[in-house]
Amino acid sequence: MQDNSLYDMENSLLEDALDADPQADRILEGLNESQHEAVSSELRNMLIIAGAGTGKTRVLVSRIAWLIKHFHIAPRNIMAVTFTNKAATEMRERLALMVGNSVQMSLWANTFHSICLRLLRAYASYAGLIPGFTILDTDSQVSLVKRLMKDMNIDTKEFKPSDIASNISKQKENGIRALAFSKMISAKSPDYVKVTSQVYNVYERVCNQENSVDFSELLLRTVELLDNNQE
């Protein structure tokens, strides 16, 4: 349900910030011809391919500012996603200089994992989680896998817990749950694949019981959340 008062407040904030920003009309300054074209293009899908040091971040930030300034798109409806925290921080800092910090804070400008976490925190129950769920970092994930392997009498010297944990994460990143993975196993499968499947099943069950998610789970759980909830 749309909260009109919230939208009105946001639009007022946006107008005030842009009116007060002396840089708002200089978004295109200093851009080369290709960058200018990308930033000022009409509303459409674009694929921009460029090498290191060619100004990709500048183009992205300028494009976002252009969307806000010239197309009057509400910041809350813009999502900018990157891989590293450093890149996300740099992007937000540059945006703050161009559109104002108050406007920048309404954007979705984060890493993939941060955006997925934000969605899961907001819609935990829809994602099959209990609000306040915990995040397993890589060390915690490996420790849990190692504990489970010992409980299952699996030799942790022959099969390294870190390798098994990594294999589980790879399956999640490919959108494959434990049950689906187990159905892919055959008698001819390598031993480490069979062990991964055995541990994955138990690992998934324990994580659900303990209301915890690892980094790969953040991605997969969000994909499932969006797939299963059209609204």
How does this structure look, described?
The chain has 231 residues and is mainly α. It has 11 helices and 4 strands; from the N terminus they run H-H-H-E-H-H-E-H-E-H-H-H-H-E-H. Helix 2 runs parallel beside helix 3 (56-70), helix 7 (138-151) packs across helix 8 (161-173) and helix 8 (161-173) packs across helix 10.
Which features characterize this protein?
mainly alpha; two-stranded parallel sheet; 11 helices
- Span from first to last CA? 10 Å
Which strand order do you get reading across the main beta sheet?
A: 1-2
**Coarse shape:** elongated
Which series of helices and strands comes N to C?
HHHEHHEHEHHHHEH
Calculate the mean pLDDT score and round it.
Answer: 90
Q: Could you name the ranges where pLDDT drops below 50 across 5 or more consecutive residues? A: 16-21
Structural class: mainly alpha
Helix count from the secondary structure assignment: 11
Question: Strand share of the residues?
Answer: 5-15%
Q: Helix proportion of residues, in percent?
A: 55-70%
Largest sheet report: 2 strands, parallel
- Count of beta strands: 4
Q: Cα-atom Rg, whole angstroms?
A: 22 Å
Give a concise summary.
This protein is mainly alpha-helical and 231 residues long. The chain has helices at residues 4-20, 33-40, 56-70, 85-99, 101-104, 112-122, 138-151, 161-173, 178-183, 191-210, 215-228; strands at residues 79-82, 108-111, 134-136, 212-214.
SSE arrangement:
Blueprint: H1 4-20, H2 33-40, H3 56-70, E1 79-82, H4 85-99, H5 101-104, E2 108-111, H6 112-122, E3 134-136, H7 138-151, H8 161-173, H9 178-183, H10 191-210, E4 212-214, H11 215-228
Parallel strand pairs: 1-2, 3-4
Helix pairs in contact: 2-3, 3-4, 6-11, 7-8, 8-10, 8-11
